[in-house]
Design a protein that fits this description.
There is one protein chain. With about 325 residues, this protein is α/β, with parallel strands linked by helices. The protein folds into two domains: about 220 residues, TIM Barrel; about 50 residues, no CATH class. Helices cover about 40% and strands about 15% of the residues. The protein has twelve helices and eleven strands. The two termini are about 30 Å apart. The strands form two sheets. The chain has an eight-stranded parallel β-sheet with strand order 1-9-8-6-5-4-3-2. It has a three-stranded antiparallel β-sheet with strand order 7-11-10. Bound molecules: flavin mononucleotide. The site of flavin mononucleotide (FMN) has 26 residues, from strand 9.
Length: about 325
């Protein structure tokens, strides 16, 4: 069965505001949904399952309010780490089932039983990967679509060029591909579609929004930084990730040490713990974030840029 990516005509741009640990909030997700963009957050951004339940109630109430006001919101999505090492996985999944979360964004590991449980209540699961090999595994396990996390993405990043990864995954499947990494304009979303992806996944573009949970200093840093200030390293938690250089320097880290460290090695336990809290992440698209604009306005801007770029591309080609 093919998935209706317009979600019954509720989407104004094929885009998901990507889940960001300690940054996404229900307010940010609801603002996106209200403009016809899928909003999301990671379950693990909440400290406890009770808090996660509160966020889901807040989402459902927010969506119901919009429906009552005649707004047709886009659906929202929740990010679940489905690797067996995540002790919260089954309990958090049970809450997604209870709230019939329309879209679950699964990360790390791709267990068939998780996909089956999501399908059983009518939900869909998009699984994030950084390689075609992991995409293949997720598709075999029953994922409904693949989030291709490419080089230049914020948070845990991929290392493969987006053209290469989208092409490789497209050879495996006709299911939706959601491209992630360094996109920050509506034109970029058109480009993602043109290169064979179905949707775009934007995180960094929304860090500075007032609805984000990022501390003020992080949001200031995002506004000041450009791509040259983003450092790729595996040193903080063993996974490849992109971090903002000023925050690394403030934490007393030596950039040469970070660059030289071997994959899997962690530089020091304290720094590893500070990541995302005092050591801040962003993708290469950070240079396009220049103001702390409310999320709904950012969405409207992206939609207008998307429409203009579609017209331009039609003329060009
Ligand atoms: C601060 C930050 C935290 C993130 N946390 C998560 C997370 O908890 N789960 C997840 O699946 N992806 C996470 N990501 C990755 C995003 O979901 C998305 O793949 C990425 O932001 C897209 O690249 P962009 O930031 O260049 O737009 C995070 C990204 C950032 C910037």
């Amino acid at each position: 069965m093919s998935i209706d990516l317009t979600f019954g005509g509720r989407m104004r741009i094929p885009m998901i505001v990507a889940p960001m640990f300690l940054v996404s909030s229900p307010e940010l997700a609801l603002a996106a949904c209200s403009r016809g963009v899928i909003g999301s957050f990671p379950a693990h951004s909440t400290r406890t399952r009770e808090k996660f339940a509160e966020w889901l109630v807040q989402m459902d109430e927010g969506m119901a309010r919009m429906e009552a006001e005649g707004v047709n919101p886009a659906p929202y999505a929740v990010n679940l780490v489905v690797h067996p090492t995540n002790e919260r996985c089954q309990g958090d999944l049970a809450l997604c089932i209870e709230h019939k979360v329309r879209i679950v964004l699964t990360s790390k590991g791709a267990p068939t039983d998780v996909f089956e449980k999501i399908h059983a209540y009518g939900g869909i699961a998009f699984h994030d990967v950084a390689s075609a090999r992991h995409a293949e595994k997720a598709l075999d396990a029953g994922a409904d679509g693949i989030i291709a996390v490419c080089s230049g993405a914020g948070g845990h990043t991929g290392q493969v060029n987006p053209f290469a990864l989208v092409n490789e995954i497209r050879q495996l499947t006709d299911k939706p591909i959601i491209l992630s990494g360094a996109m920050s304009t509506g034109r970029d979303v058109v480009a993602a579609r043109a290169m064979g992806a179905d949707m775009a996944y934007l995180g960094t573009r929304f860090i500075a929004c007032p609805e984000s949970l990022a501390p003020e200093a992080y949001r200031d840093e995002v506004i000041e930084c450009t791509a040259k200030d983003v450092l790729y390293t595996t040193a903080l938690d063993g996974f490849p990730a992109n971090f903002l250089v000023p925050s690394l320097l403030k934490a007393g880290l030596n950039l040469d040490d970070l660059a030289d460290i071997r994959p899997g090695e962690v530089i020091d336990a304290h720094a590893a713990k500070a990541r995302y809290k005092d050591i801040w992440s962003s993708g290469h698209g950070v240079g396009m974030v220049t103001e702390k604009t409310p999320a709904a306005e950012v969405c409207d801007l992206l939609i207008a840029q998307y429409e203009r770029a579609r017209a331009t591309v039609r003329e060009l080609l």
